[in-house]
Structure formats: structure tokens, C-alpha cells
């Protein structure tokens, strides 16, 4: 008998294709027979703003003095048709998130933080609450396929209307709010029985396509006497054509949401495999506006994975007028905070990875309707944290803009940028760093 | 703005000719009316299929429209009575909150879509998705309705004197459907239910509101509602998703 005890053995090697997460998902699927639902946006690594760099000033450009020379940040949205455009002090807005998916305290905190910084917040599927309206100096009212809670009184007391065609986490998908979060108040606002799973339709009930949307927008303008800016929000999928068609439909503002943008609850497979990254969408949307001669006339808001002032500056440099934040705003409020590490672990996850927002058991009291958990979030303190965070984003964006010699953040331009990767260079349509090569430019490859 | 009184106009009646008056002027004037206005009767001539006529009203007035209207006539209506002497385009009375809308002709798709309240009467037929996502409105259709009607209908009643197209009441919530004629097929989670006395009384009240009580036999109607099997997302229902 041969002794193999001294034969060298190879190190156990996990499959790159069947990695630990993939194996766990196969086991979960085999045990349950149903797909995985979670909140948040794409978690996979995709080309992003980190793959771009600013060049800053040099011999041919001079910078502005930090702290002394002015770098303006105000933004006006809705200048095309609306009698009363939205005037923001900073180019960062709060994306649509519903009361229902978020607690009332969380919505109040978003309103407080945004208002303190002179920017807008946005309702979500499920309608407008009085607290939200009361704490938001500028509130965008979403017009969604479900029309839950939609009514003309709220339409008239909104500052702008956002027709939601899609969102980055799930272009082409509807929504699901599980029964745990359908409390009496949430159900009442949505005209549904308490405790049932609430489905949100994936397309609007009374219009299909851009020709119909043009008529729908006309109706909304007529109802509101042409006062309110009307946004059209699309998930990043075909941003060139979607932006062009939104303009054709009469939008004042186009919102393009990349795949890193969050959702309250959607299938994991949908979030990770449908739609394109934010970086890939911005220049396509801007090009559509430029080709139509509508850049800066129809404003562009970009969202999906905005985390810091550099992301803001890069989105603006690529041609956006403003950005919107959702996930980052929730983190600023206290979502996924290590303070609740033990409780996240008890839920089978950890602080920073918790994404079962639809289950309503959020230890931070944000993505829940549980009365006891909700109490954990102090809306005043959380609102202050959000305001602080927005201030930092703005200061960081101004810092970069001054370094590029810009007296307004809107003066940032693609020529201020280079890319670290070929992919990012192609997507953003800026040169690969250290070269003058833009993949695809002039028909080259 | 050319909002002129007809020489023969009744007291309180205002005639608006959309051949010479912009729609914006009409809707703007209607929106400015106070709750106690004396201008309680408006007659609109030459609508010519214009969209969003009388949209966003919120006053106890009557608007008579002499001819066909386009999309979203009387959209989001509150309080007002809107009478269309002709056919109506897509989404008539969409998201109505209260009041009364009467289409004397046929209606296109999505009539009464997402509406929370009020009464919509259609003398002729209604096309596909009649009452889609309705949230409390009462709809009475004297003719027939198209496919996917009452899709995801949440609350209210849909009464049809004629026939219903395919997939009636798909993914229905708590709306109540009464159909006198045939139903081509029922959608997911929509079933025929027993017509008990309380349902006959409910149907009678809707027919009475529509001025039809006594003109049709309530015993000829069948009731449809939600089986409520899809109210909770479950693997056993996967074939329905």
C-alpha cells in the first residue's frame, strides 16, 4: 500500500465563477423556491466616477483662491415652461423615497436636512404626508404608475412634479412593499387593506409612450396652471433616446438614475443585471440635450451612487445640472450605522451590508414602520446630520471647481476630466489619463 | 380671453367657444371659480377632441361640452359635473376625486383610471382598461367594456350593462364588479362571487345614481371580486406572477 501522506497537496481553491455569494444564493433559492428581494442599488463593481480624475489648474489655467474667491452653487430647475421654477442653493437634491418604505421620522429628517441647505426633497410611491410637506421648503411630488395617494390638492401644493417612468435599480420593473410595512396609515394612504403585500405597477395606467406622455404632461400643466416644473425620471437604460423623448414630451427637467441608485425592494437579479451604470448614462443624456439644442434649457439631474463632492463635481463636469442622492442620504441619517452592529448581526447581516429594507426590521428606525424602531431616529438630529453631509458635498465640489478655475460649479466641463480606465474613457467620452485618446472619438477604436 | 355670454344664455351660463378661445383660458377661468360662484353653468362649444378639457376642476359647477373630447377630460375632477355630448378619449375622469362625469357617447381606454371617488357614466362602450387601478370611484357603463378592465382595481364599483372583455379584474384588490352580459375571461385572482342581498342593494344604489333603477333587472347581473390569493407574495402562487 502506497503512503500518500507526504504527497504535496494543492491549496483549496474556490471558483471565481461559483464564489461564496453565488453558492449561498443557489442554496437559498433551492430552499425557498423564490427569488431574493432586497433594497438598495447594484452592489457589483461597475465603472464609476472613481474612474475619472480632475486635471486641476496648471500653466494654461489658473485656479481660484479657496475660501476667498467665490464659487457659486445655485441651480434653477424648470426654466423651460414652468411659471415658478425651482431655485436651489446647492446642486444636490434628495431623490424620491416613499413614506411607507421609510418611516415618518426619516421623511421628516430628509425634509429638515434638505431645507436647511436650501435644496429639495421628493415624495415617493404612496403619496405626500403633511409632515413631509411641512418640513420641506421645496418638495417634488412624484407621479408614479400606481398613483397611490395621488390627488389634485397635493399636486397643487407641490413645488414640482416628477413623472416617474423608471428608476435605475429596476428599469422596466414595478415594486413590492411587503405586508409588514403596510400599517393602517400606509394602507389608508394607498387605499389598500392593512397588512397585504402592496404591488406597484411597472407602467402607467393611462398613457403609453412619448406621444401619450406629452398629452399627460399637458394635463398636469393644465391642472396646475402651468406653474410647476415637470420632471421626467428614467432609469438608465437607453439614456440618449430616453432623454430625447422626455424632451419631446415636454419635460422641464430630465432625471437619469443609474443602476447604483437604490430601491426599497426589488429582486436582486433585477438590480444587478438590468440597466447601466450612472457613469455610462451621463454623457449619453447630455449628448441628447446638446443634439436637440436643449442643454441647460432642459435641466438634467443625475443620480445613482453619488457619495462625495468629487462625484458631484464629475457629474456636473460631464454636463449635469444637479445630482440627487438617496442611499447616501439614508446613511447620513443613520442607516447601517455600526452603533447597531449587534442588532444587524442578529438579523443575519452586518452594519454596512444590511439591505432587507422591505422587511421593516431596520434597527436604525429608517426603513421601517415599526413604532418602537421608528422612535430610535430623532428627526431633528438626523436632519442636522443630513444638512452637515450636504454641506460637505457642496464644499468638496466647490474645492474641486476652484482648483479647476471655475467661479460656478456649472462651469466645470468634460475638458477638466481624464479617465483612469479605457472603459471609463469610452463611457464618459474623456481622454484616457496621460493620452489624448478617447475611445470611439472620430470613429477610431 | 373670449368667454362670452350667449345672447340666449340663461342666467349664470357662460359660453366658451374653443374654436376661438385657448384651452388655457378656459381651464384657467374654471380654476379661479370660488365655491360660491354664480357662474355655475358653462357650455363649451367646438371641443374638437382637445385634450385636458375641464381638467383639475374644484367647484360645484356644471360644464356641458358639445362634442367629442380628447385625452383626460375632467381629469382629477372634484365637485364638478362634466357632461360630454360626444365621445371621450383616453383617461376620461382619470383620478377623479368627487363629482360627476357623464359621457354621452363611447369612451376610449382607461376611463376612470385610478379615480378615488365620484360617479362616471358612459352611455356607450368603454375600451380597454376601464377602471384600471380605480380607488373608490363608481363607474357605470351602459354598453360593453374592453380587455384588462379593473386591472389592479383597489376600491369602488364597476357596473357594466353589456359584456366584459378578456382578463376582467386581473390582480384585483377590493373593487366590486357587476356585469350583466358575458365575461370573455377573468384575470388572475378574480372570481365570480355570490350575489347576496347586500350586493343587490349596493348595485341598486349605483343604478339609481345613474338613473337606471327600474330600467334593468338586477337579477341579470353577476358579481366578481378578488379571491385574495395573491395578497401575499408566496412561492405557491408562482404560476400567477
Give a quick precis of the structure:
Chain A is of the alpha/beta class. Chain A is built from 15 helices and 16 strands.
CATH superfamily (homologous) name of chain B: Glutamate synthase, alpha subunit, C-terminal domain
**Largest sheet of chain B, order of strands side by side?**
1-2-3-4-5-6-7-8-9-10-12-11
Residue-averaged pLDDT of chain B: 94
How many helix segments of chain A?
15
Output the structural class of chain B: mainly beta
Distance between the termini of chain A: 62 Å
Helix and strand sequence of chain B: EEHEEEEEEEEEHE
What is the makeup of the main sheet of chain B? 12 strands, mixed
The helix count of chain B comes to 2
Give the overall form of chain B: elongated
The CATH topology of chain B is given as Pectate Lyase C-like
Q: Major sheet of chain A: order of its strands?
A: 5-15-14-12-11-8-7-6
Using only C-alpha atoms, the radius of gyration of chain B works out to 19 Å
Using the 3D structure, state the CATH architecture of chain B: 3 Solenoid
Structural class designation of chain A = alpha/beta
What's the level 1 CATH class of chain A? Alpha Beta
Q: What share of the residues of chain A lie within helices?
A: 25-40%
Organism (chain B): Ancylobacter vacuolatus
InterPro entries (chain B): Glu_synth_asu_C_sf, Glu_synth_lsu_3
Protein name (chain B): Glutamate synthase domain-containing protein 3
Organism (chain A): Ancylobacter vacuolatus
Polypeptide structure, described:
Chain B: This is Glutamate synthase domain-containing protein 3. Chain B: InterPro entries: Glu_synth_asu_C_sf (IPR036485), Glu_synth_lsu_3 (IPR012061). Chain B: It comes from Ancylobacter vacuolatus. Chain A: Pfam families: Glu_synthase. Chain A: Belongs to the glutamate synthase family. The complex is a heterodimer of chains A (445) and B (241). Chain A has one domain: Aldolase class I (TIM Barrel). In chain A, the strands form five sheets. An eight-stranded parallel β-sheet of chain A has the order 5-15-14-12-11-8-7-6. In chain A, strands 1-13 form a two-stranded antiparallel ribbon. Chain A is an alpha/beta fold and 445 residues long. Helices cover 33% and strands 14% of the residues of chain A. Chain A is globular, with a radius of gyration of 23 Å. Chain A has helices spanning 20-32, 104-116, 130-135, 152-157, 184-190, 209-223, 239-248, 268-273, 278-291, 309-317, 327-333, 341-346, 371-374, 379-403, 422-428, and strands spanning 37-40, 52-54, 75-77, 86-88, 92-94, 121-122, 139-143, 160-164, 175-177, 198-200, 230-235, 253-257, 263-267, 299-303, 322-325, 417-419. The relative contact order of chain A is 0.17. Chain B has 241 residues and is mainly beta. Chain B has one domain (3-240): Pectate Lyase C-like. In chain B, 9% of the residues lie in helices and 23% in strands. Chain B is built from two helices and twelve strands; from the N terminus they run ββαβββββββββαβ. Chain B has helices at residues 23-31, 197-209, and strands at 3-4, 13-17, 41-45, 62-66, 81-84, 100-103, 119-122, 135-141, 155-160, 176-179, 190-193, 222-226. Chain B has a twelve-stranded mixed β-sheet with strand order 1-2-3-4-5-6-7-8-9-10-12-11, covered by helices on one side. Chain B is elongated. Chain B starts with a strand and ends in a 15-residue tail after the last strand. The model of chain B has no long low-confidence stretch (mean pLDDT 94). The interface between A and B is large, with 33 and 44 residues.
